[in-house]
Write a structure and sequence with these properties.
heterotrimer, A mainly alpha, B alpha/beta, C mainly alpha, A: mainly alpha, ABC transporter involved in vitamin B12 uptake, BtuC, two-stranded antiparallel sheet, 4% strand, C: mainly alpha, 2 domains, 13 helices, 0% strand, globular, disordered C terminus, binds adenosine-5'-triphosphate, binds magnesium ion
Chain lengths: 297, 265, 329
């Protein structure tokens, strides 16, 4: 139809994808290593966004505002793992049971925040910069920064996973925890590190989310979580590259549908892709069903 | 009543093969677990399937039972090509199996475990559950009576009301085999039914195999213990690296070079 | 007081129907249907639009699809059908050989996104404002019986339907169908190897559960006359599930007790009888926090619930006069 609108929306889609991708990389990393689908991830993201909001309200400057979110996210994430999840994992470590624990934790975080925030939606000020024309696409400086941040995170994750001993240990852990432990991988440290990194990425994703949407409420994390989970499942658990590619597909799909089909269905488009993959999926790889049911948190 | 372990083949001539699997290949991603294995089993016969770890025995069983789709080859059962059928369709035709890690329904009692098998797909239809016809009632009564008999035969009546999750390893194996019998199999596939089982139960399971075979059921049993294989099998098939490398009576297979080579390789 | 009691009676019957329906799917079949509330919502919305009359008619302030004014029992049937159809569609997409936790996440995605779409698309069910002024059945009786009498009549009607639901659930409870469903829940490969086809059974339990849920939604909207996205957030499913787990999974009376404790004693009665604290809406938020905590406490201290699943003894399944116990062969 209208090719300028299409190109525009693809441009927006790439920005949206960057936002989703940062969250999805953190989510998928933690899913790959611990084998736990963490439904409180979106709430940790909200926590991070609120932390940045508070720092911004205090006028402490741009750098503390940016650092607050990942910091709070990392702390919240590792705290959750070491307290609540550790307690339940000691009793039963089925993947499904612990997923339910994270859902309850998320519910508690969401409504506690909601109660503290007096159920309000907050405005968030963040400079979006000048517009930049890049070929057929139009971006703002801010959206370019978001895309750059996503690319940076991906590069850093890949480098850490594939070039360092630490990364090798993490990958071993995600394939076979028992064997990895037997080979002398320091499990506790590795897993805590995973929670910290994924929590920091959740917080960062929260910040990135508010810079893009400019509003934040206690319930925001849930809608974001939906896209993050869709990207992580679509991209294959534990694969940062897969998560980014899936985020691109979902991000572009949501914006293109928003531009042409009415914005009501933009998020549904992301889900429709996941549904389609579920129905048509090949019966290989991670899709072939249960691999290991045991969770290590 | 379990009989003495005697080799039947001498007295009773096997009829046409109930199972013919030819040129079966099973692949998992890049791994070729079964590479063109062929096997025919007549009724009644107890066939032992042996081979080193990773030889592809369980995978061949899965190809016959339908748990894995064969990448190539044909599985003919009772004169019908079942290669494309899903596992529940094959079970309805009479291929029943146990698994290497015993499959017991943990949230059902032992008695209920047997009923699931005994009522079959017809007894588990939603229409039946809604209408509760007298015919269904009669069927349920008959199945319950039969389950009680099978439990007695396996001497596990005392655990009829135990949940699956409350059983010991050996009891799980017995329940799994008993469950298969509830469906009146024509071919029974047993994947290492003696692993983790107390010695006196091993003997009992062996006796049961012979007794089952006498009811005109063909049995294919995967087992690592040569002692067990020698005492209950009419015939032994040897696998290594996904291929069938020997097939014959226990004595002849033991004499052959191939077995030693396969296990030493 | 009597007014409150009849209201609560209706809520309890509606919640019970929903809880028994979800227990079929979650307890018997082991499907973590976090999109369950969608099926109740589908019933409620469809009841509303086929009872409200044409869109833009008498209630010009709201827009919606279809629009008809069917006489009373029909909207309820439409509601049940809608719940069943939505459940079936959902089942066809999600009931795949997928890890159970992934499946739960996918259901959650559907619940959240459906709520977003219905809130945003005003033409569908009037967006986030939702539908209001849904006619109550036989509302002329309100003048003869008085509002209180009418409420009790409705409560009685809901209770009758609830009993019908109970007898359905009990009938299915001991059946071979249900046993096969539970078998497939415990071990899919094992059940298939015995000739059970879990895919069909699960679609069936989805359809039946969806119909009951849709019916409950229809009953609810016929009573409260309004329905909007705020009434069916994903957390509602979580609340129903908390009741089921607290009372006892796969035990009808356990579900009864748990639903009463969580949905009525805790959610409704506190809302009605405790003084309002803080700003408006604070107590609602706190209720959800407590439900989250309650869930954690229950699965930590009493994972099988107050009334655990009853063991089906062999003696109850066997005819007392067994035909022949002698050797058959
Ligand atoms: N689900 C699977 N995915 C990938 N590879 C598999 C799978 N199942 C089996 N394999 C591989 O296929 C080969 C054959 O395995 P199989 O289980 O059939 O051997 P087996 O003869 O039964 O061995 P064992 O005596 O240890 O039970 C092995 O190399 C195994 O690693
Ligand atoms: Mg094996």
């Amino acid at each position: 139809m209208n090719s300028t609108i299409l190109l525009q929306s693809i441009g927006f889609g790439i920005t949206t994808a960057a936002v989703i991708a940062i969250g999805a990389m953190g989510f998928t990393l933690q899913l790959g290593v611990t084998n736990l689908l963490n439904l409180s991830f979106g709430n940790i993201m909200t926590l991070g966004a609120f932390a940045s909001l508070i720092v911004e309200r205090w006028h402490l400057g741009l750098v503390p505002t940016i650092l607050a979110a990942p910091l709070v996210g990392a702390v919240a994430s590792v705290l959750l793992a070491r307290t609540l999840l550790a307690v339940f994992a000691r009793r039963q470590n089925g993947a499904f049971e612990l997923l339910m624990v994270t859902l309850a934790a998320g519910l508690i975080i969401e409504y506690t925040l909601d109660a503290l925030a007096h159920l309000q939606v907050f405005q968030f000020q963040f400079p979006s910069g000048a517009t930049v024309h890049l070929g057929p696409f139009v971006f703002t400086v801010l959206s370019l920064a978001l895309i750059g941040a996503a690319a940076l995170v991906l590069a850093a994750l890949l480098a850490a996973l594939h070039l360092t001993r630490l990364g090798k240990a993490l990958r071993a852990l995600s394939v076979d925890p028992k064997l990895a432990r037997a080979c002398g991988v320091p499990m506790r440290r590795m897993i805590n590190l995973t929670w910290i990194v994924s929590g920091a990425l959740a917080g960062l994703a929260g910040l990135v989310y508010v810079t893009n949407s400019l509003t934040i409420s206690a319930g925001a994390g849930l809608n974001f979580l939906v896209l993050v989970i869709a990207a992580a499942i679509l991209g294959g658990a534990g694969s940062p590259v897969g998560a980014v590619l899936a985020a691109l597909v979902i991000g572009v799909a949501t914006e293109v549908v928003a531009a042409f089909g009415g914005s009501y269905y933009s998020q549904a488009a992301g889900l429709a892709i996941l549904a389609l993959v579920l129905v048509l999926r090949p019966s290989t790889g991670m899709w072939s069903g249960p691999t290991r049911d045991e969770v290590t948190v | 009543m379990p009989t003495e372990t005697s080799n039947l083949s001498a007295t009773q001539m096997p009829s046409a093969p109930v199972l013919a699997a030819s040129d079966i290949c099973v692949r998992y991603g890049g791994v070729e677990a079964v590479a063109g294995a062929s096997l025919t089993i007549p009724t009644p016969q107890v066939v032992g399937l042996i081979g080193p770890n990773g030889a592809g025995k369980s995978s061949l069983l899965a190809a016959i039972g339908g748990q894995s789709r064969a990448a190539s080859g044909r599985v003919t059962f009772d004169g019908e090509d079942v290669t494309q059928l899903p596992p529940h369709q094959r079970a309805r035709r009479g291929i029943l199996r146990t698994f290497q890690t015993a499959s017991v329904f943990d949230g059902l009692t032992v008695f209920e475990n047997l009923l699931v098998a005994g009522l079959g797909d017809q007894g588990s239809r939603l229409r039946g559950a809604l209408l509760r016809t007298p015919a269904l009632h009669a069927r349920e009564r008959a199945t319950a009576a039969r389950a009680a008999r099978v439990l007695e035969e396996f001497e596990i009546s005392h655990i009829a009301d135990h949940y699956g999750r409350e059983l010991s390893g050996g009891q799980r194996r017995l329940v799994e085999i008993a469950r298969c019998l509830m469906r009146s199999p024509k071919l029974l596939l047993l994947d290492e039914p003696m692993v983790g089982v107390a010695p006196h139960l091993v003997e009992r399971i062996g006796e049961h195999c012979r007794a089952i075979c006498e009811r005109s059921v063909a049995i294919l049993i995967v087992e690592h213990s040569m002692e067990v294989i020698g005492s209950i099998c009419d015939r032994v098939v040897v696998m290594a690296s996904g291929e069938v490398i020997d097939d014959g009576s226990f004595a002849s297979v033991m004499k052959g070079e191939s077995v030693r080579e396969a296990y030493l390789a | 007081m009597s007014f409150y009691l009849s209201t609560i009676a209706v809520y309890f019957c509606v919640d019970l129907l929903a809880a028994w329906a979800l227990n079929m799917q979650f307890g018997w079949a082991g499907i973590p249907n976090f999109a369950f509330i969608l099926t109740q919502a589908a019933g409620a919305y469809m009841y509303a639009v086929v009872a409200l009359g044409p869109s833009g008619g008498l209630t010009a302030f709201q827009h919606y699809i279809l629009g008809a004014s069917l006489p009373f029992p029909l909207p309820l049937l439409v509601a049940a059908g809608a719940g069943g159809v939505v459940a079936l569609a959902l089942g066809l997409i999600t009931l795949r050989p997928l890890r159970r936790d992934y499946q739960a996440a996918v259901f959650l995605l559907f619940a959240v996104i459906a709520s977003d779409v219905v809130s945003a698309d005003v033409g569908l069910f009037n967006g986030s404002n939702g539908l209001a002024a849904v006619p109550q059945p036989f509302s002329s009786l309100q003048t003869t019986l008085g509002l209180g009498g009418y409420q009790w009549l409705y409560a009685g009607f809901t209770a009758v339907i609830c009993l019908g639901g109970l007898s359905l659930v009990r009938g299915l409870g001991g059946s071979g169908w249900q046993r096969a469903l539970r078998a497939a829940r415990d071990d899919e490969a094992g059940a298939r190897a015995l000739g059970v086809n879990p895919a069909v059974l699960r679609l069936q339990v989805f359809f039946i559960g969806g119909m009951l849920a849709g019916l409950s939604g229809g009953l609810l909207v016929g009573f409260i006359s309004a329905w909007s996205p705020g009434a069916w957030e994903y957390s509602e499913t979580f609340a129903i599930l908390t009741g089921i787990i607290l009372g006892g999974v796969s035990n009808n009376w356990g579900v009864f007790v748990g639903t009463f404790l969580v949905q009525i004693a805790f959610q409704e009665l506190t809302a009605l009888f405790l003084p309002q604290i803080g700003y408006p809406g604070l107590s609602d938020a706190l209720v959800w926090v407590v439900i989250g905590v309650l869930w954690l406490l229950v699965i930590y201290f009493r994972p099988r619930g107050i009334l655990p699943e009853r063991r089906t003894r062999m003696s109850t399944l066997q005819p007392s006069t067994s035909p022949e116990m002698s050797d058959a062969d």
